Amino acid sequence: MQALVKAQADKGLWMQNEPVPEPGPAEVLIKINKTGICGTDIHIWNWDEWASTNVPVPLIVGHEFAGEIVELGKDVTGLTVGQRVSGEGHLVGNLSRQSRAGKFHLDPETKGIGIHENGAFAQYLKLPAFNVVQLPDDISDDIGAILDPLGNAVHTALSFDLVCEDVLITGAGPIGIMAAAVARHAGARNVVITDVNPDRLALAAKVADIVPVNVANEDLDSVVAQLGMQQGFDVGLEMSGNQLALDQMVEAMVMGGRIAMLGIPPGKSPVDWSRIVFKAITLKGVYGREIFETWYKMISMLQHGLDVSRVITHTFDAAEFQAGFDTMLSGSSGKVVLDWRNVS
Ligand SMILES: [Zn+2]
Question: Domains along the chain?
């Protein structure tokens, strides 16, 4: 089969021939239709410090996918050949205290497909049957291919009660934009998203009924005043990993505000803890998706009015992966999808 491989410890990825994986007794073989390019894949493409210390070579990369089951391991029950599926890319164990309590997303033994184990940028992927998530007929392969990052957005956005709350999202990348759409869908009152990239803010306004603010040239305080907000934001979703954005968020919160952080700051960064203490702010770190409660909720929301389809701005045949990665590297795109159906 054809697969996109980190074949050498260097910048880039290489499309090359690899053996079709053989599913074990509790695994399924999935024929890949569509995949999403993630920020993580960009780190691996660039072979930055994180990638070069965490990702083994060679490795088939990619973890955002939709496809169909073509083979079942001998012990697999409850799934059938031909089913359209996506799946959780975090491979978890069942020995840790967290797993045994059903909190699989907190299992310290977690490994990721496309990061530690061979992934989904290929014609075929093997996956534990436990990780498979069936796609209802009304959810397309395009949306199926971005359920992983939508899950990050849903997990972060639903960290705190949003009903009638004023929500600030810092960072209008695809996950920030989808989190804004989820906050709107879940019943927030005002949803404000900030960034310094006008293309991303324009895309945010196209995807959801929210207020985009370019903090490079607009004053967040005056936007807050225009919206008639009295004190500040009740809930903050930090999606940028940018220290200035987090500082601005802390200042913009109400007393007792709640902040969920998905953005990853680059290394250690200074935090004005006294502001957080005196404002009685709750901070929550967010990792991955709740397995499988987040999947249940996002599919349910997608079937009942949540529409994130416009966050996909580009689709390329997998053979044109270079163009796909160039588009992502430009920093102005939404989600970029690769189509594997015509690969031969
Ligand atoms: Zn991802």
Answer: 2-146+308-339 (3.90.180.10), 153-285 (3.40.50.720)
